[in-house]
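Q: Joint fold for the lines below.
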Amino acid sequence: MTADLDHLPITILGAGLIGIGWAALFAHHGARVTLWDPQPETLKTAPDRLAKPRADLTELDGHGPRGDIHFVSDIAAALREPALIQENAPESIPVKHALYAEIETLAPPEAILASSTSSLTWDDLAPGLTDPQRLITAHPFNPPHLVPLVELYGPDPARLDRAEALYRAAGRVPVRLNIPATGHIANRLASALWREAVHIVAEGIADVEAVDRALMHGPGLRWSVLGAHMAYHLGGGAGGIAGYLDHLGPSQERRWQDLGTPRLSPEIKDTLIAGVATACAGRDIATLEAERDAALIALLRARAKPQT
Amino acid sequence: MTADLDHLPITILGAGLIGIGWAALFAHHGARVTLWDPQPETLKTAPDRLAKPRADLTELDGHGPRGDIHFVSDIAAALREPALIQENAPESIPVKHALYAEIETLAPPEAILASSTSSLTWDDLAPGLTDPQRLITAHPFNPPHLVPLVELYGPDPARLDRAEALYRAAGRVPVRLNIPATGHIANRLASALWREAVHIVAEGIADVEAVDRALMHGPGLRWSVLGAHMAYHLGGGAGGIAGYLDHLGPSQERRWQDLGTPRLSPEIKDTLIAGVATACAGRDIATLEAERDAALIALLRARAKPQT
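A: Joint structure:
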């Protein structure tokens, strides 16, 4: 299934960091975006905060936004006609359920209701609707206008197909879960990796900056072109993953036993904070974000080129 | 400290996959490489197996090899004058210890003896030498001619400084461990991530291909430009890592509790093998490696460009 975002009405609920990223992205790809937020102050500062993701997308794709963004404080107006409602409310079940009650009253029933939730699951959110089939979870990875992944779960395959087509039309890479899980896929993987990263620092094996450099110039770089399972397929020689599991499965299981289970004690927290400060080398968060985004844009442009 | 590889004698012990990668890399950057292997057949096929890494490096940097490679079956000749000995013997302590006894007899004492060992540590290897100060571990990440990371450990800071300068001159990113650890840094992180990747498949949350796609287009991509610790610094809002640890540390610890501890049972192995086969979509290992390397070259070229 393919979709065309041209003039398609898409409503973004919540104009925080994630909502701003979605709004910039969908407008860039031609949608008629309505951006709603219950806080007048948040809505007022939204145009300024949209400037950077818009500029990033223009740099990435070589063209400016093909759609537009309307800023709306009236939720009834925001929900009148969207094909997709991307919900970015605070990560609170009661807050999201209250919003869903309004959506069910005000929005067209065929609209896809997609929650950007990171820490909650479809099972947490579905009880807020009389018709839970409307709901999917669609979790982006920060910064959402640049990182292509969107993790999807929903019980209605036809609705998921329509949603996937919309995200693909916005240049996203949708990935489906078969059952809901806390942290979806990506944050589970990130959490598992970070636990060991904390352990390495806590044990004094290497400092914060060394761990991050090893990741960026080693497995992180390789995982950006080759997944973890496939890496072991290629690491198994001619026998592939089957050969790997036969010959090196037992040593991998022993290595799992050797991995750490650190606590975020006050001492470890202080070590992490000091290590990050060293790694920052005086750069503030805005500078680090700008460096991250420039590097992501360079990599995404390299990926987009057809390989010769 | 900086180093010039031009005409520098470097000896590579072992002409398997890793040794071939090192030989191509150092010769590309100007060294006079001696490649030794005890198996005549391995040495005989080495020139053919060097063709691909050499072509990759030419494509990456836009120039051909600036040094050369000599194929030597006599270990005394191979060890006569190297500044660096990169050892890639099988991952067996007795095999490496026996080789180290020859090195100590035949090589100049000031030569750096660097082991590429992946699964052993400096503590395992040092008893093979009467002067263990000679030895460092210098673990590359596959494919070693393209992935920049080299993980270093050794007890002699001056020797480590010299080694770092040589690896940097070959375009590598050296990272130092403070104490030896099984799996160094990168394979500990990779092992921790893969454990959860296996758990996600084992629990039916998502299939092999979905997990790999989520990694490549989400955290993997981001980790190639931003380390795991720094990612939480940027995820903490204005408060940085300290704010993150205060506000979200407890939920991160809860998530750690929720991560899996799978076994590589026959059933899981079959699921992984079948999932990888689906993800391969008929591509054989050589094709997958060629795709991986082409993608790595494109990313490394994008990284090398100065950011505007």
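Q: Anything notable?
A: The mean pLDDT of chain A is 96. Residues 40-61 of chain A form the longest helix (22 residues).
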